[in-house]
Design a protein that fits this description.
Order of helices and strands: HEEHEHEHEHHEEHEHEHEHEHEHEEEE
Number of strands: 16
Number of helices: 12
Largest sheet: 9 strands, mixed
Radius of gyration: 22 Å
Helix content: 25-40%
Distance between the termini: 33 Å
Length: about 375
């Protein structure tokens, strides 16, 4: 295979991996393409829920044609037994002659050992093909492995002057239909969406991905609600039996209130308290422990400020509408004690997308 062909087939594997974002947690979304004599004979993405992995699914599709073929994998194949056999064993048993890997697995149970196992079996291994692109797809999984918390994307939708509602609280709708559709697609590529209890009390949102067929696994809805003030008639609780609703609340919250939420189908995650609300770092650690790798935070302003103050925002997706509300409107980010410009959170702009009359600007934490 030439370098050009390797890159082309790895791009196809990465496209498959992107399709699975939001559906494979706690496992990463991996793409695998099996090629023999220049023809694709197998292709797969990690299954919803994380199992089976992409490699055995692609090999199953290839069947006998996997013998002597090349497998393109966006993440180093696993070499340990979990709930499924090692993917390295599946590749070896299928007679794969060559494996092209985009990036190594940060999990210490695998890191470099999967590649070593393949080479020991006489398989040619090529590493680092489109590595940066693969790492971007795997950022949530990598974040959880290395820090214990999910990758946090802060989503904001505001006027040009950073307001999310009028002084009376009116907010529907600041952005137009194209922006709202993209916002739903953004939800669809995350494991969970999180809001503060103030947003739930004000808007009574459902927090679902309302694009038919976009994802195969329900989106986890998370609410930071220190005293479980969410109304028992809220849409989140009314649908909790079918679509997961998790509540981050202070340890020691009224047991009767907890029982009522659990009876409605909600999951309660107790975390330490803070002077205002819950302690945000332990809250994110609790979500990471529960398997969440990619978290989309949608508001409100106080939750955004809490995360920024704690330096826990990795990415920002900011939808701007071409209007102005003024200083008496509700800010997208509440005050968080910033007095020194040198301490100001800074981000690198990565993309600008016009959406009708609105604009989506995306940012990442500097490397």
């Amino acid at each position: 295979m030439t370098e050009v062909a390797d890159r082309a087939h790895m791009r196809a594997a990465l496209a498959l991996a992107r399709r699975g974002l939001g559906s494979t947690w706690p496992n990463p979304s991996v793409g695998c393409v099996v090629v023999r004599d220049g023809r694709v004979v197998g292709r797969a993405t990690t299954a919803p829920g994380g199992r089976p992995h992409a490699e055995p699914l692609a090999l199953e599709m290839a069947g006998p044609l996997a013998q002597g073929a090349t497998a393109y994998v966006t993440l180093e194949p696993c070499c340990h037994w979990g709930r499924t056999p090692p993917c390295t064993d599946a590749l070896i048993a299928a007679g794969i002659a060559r494996v092209v890997v985009a990036t190594r697995d940060p999990d210490r149970r695998v890191d470099s050992q999967g590649v070593a196992r393949l080479r020991e079996a006489g398989i040619e291994v090529v590493e680092g093909v489109l590595e940066a692109e693969a790492q971007a797809v795997l950022a949530g999984f990598t974040q959880r492995i290395r820090t214990g918390r999910p990758l946090v994307t802060l989503k904001l939708a505001s006027t040009l002057d950073g307001r999310i509602a009028t002084a009376s609280g009116e907010s529907q709708w600041i952005t137009g239909d194209p922006a709202r559709r993209v916002a739903h697609a953004l939800r669809g590529r995350h494991d969970a969406v999180m809001v503060g209890v103030g947003t739930v009390m004000a808007d009574n949102p459902e927090l679902t991905c309302r694009i038919p067929g976009f994802r195969t696994r329900p989106l986890v809805r998370v609410v930071a609600d220190s005293h479980l003030r969410t109304r028992l008639t809220a849409r989140l609780l009314a649908t909790a039996a079918d679509t997961p609703a998790w509540f981050l609340t202070r340890a020691g919250t009224d047991p009767a209130r907890i029982a009522a939420f659990e009876a409605a189908g909600a999951t309660i995650l107790p975390v330490p308290s803070a002077p205002i609300g819950i302690a945000i770092d332990p809250a994110l650690q609790a979500l990471g422990s529960a398997g969440i790798t990619r978290l989309l935070v949608e508001g409100g302003g106080q939750l955004a400020a809490t995360l920024l103050r704690a330096d826990l925002v990795d990415r920002i997706a900011w939808f701007h509408a071409p209007g102005l509300i003024g200083g008496d409107g509700w800010p997208a980010v509440a005050a968080f004690g910033m007095t020194d410009l040198t301490a100001m959170p800074r981000f690198t702009r990565t993309n600008v997308t016009p959406l009708g009359s609105d604009v989506l600007t995306e940012f990442e934490r500097p490397a």
